[in-house]
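User: Show me a protein chain along with its predicted structure.
Assistant: Here is one chain, sequence first, then structure tokens.
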Amino acid sequence: MENDIVTLSTYSNLSSAYMAKNFLELNDIQSFIADENITVADPLYMNAVGGIRLTVFEKDVPKALELLKQQEEEIPEEIPQQEQKEKDPNAVLCPKCGSDDTRRENVSPVAFGLSLLLLFGFPIPFIKRKYHCFHCQHEWK
């Protein structure tokens, strides 16, 4: 019975499973990853097989559970957000809200739709280039 393999925990992503496996192996507990291939090959099977399973020998279960609990306590619940990215000096600011989350639209949707209606896509002379703010949805020329 000591050599029976028992599922210690299940994971929904492979990297978390391997982090736990490596942590256990650093502490001299032999562990195995089960159902790795089927869940990576087709993620829709994840729920059907119960996720990616981390398994250990039955004799190592109490120590392994204690180590995994210790590992979870060491990881902070909230990871501090990185400092805000440096602003691009060439970014176009929205005149309404001042956001730099803008994009220049090269072809207006109306012009694009009309060119699709024309069978061979002749160029349309009244193409207006404008900017769009994704923060406040404001559009300007």
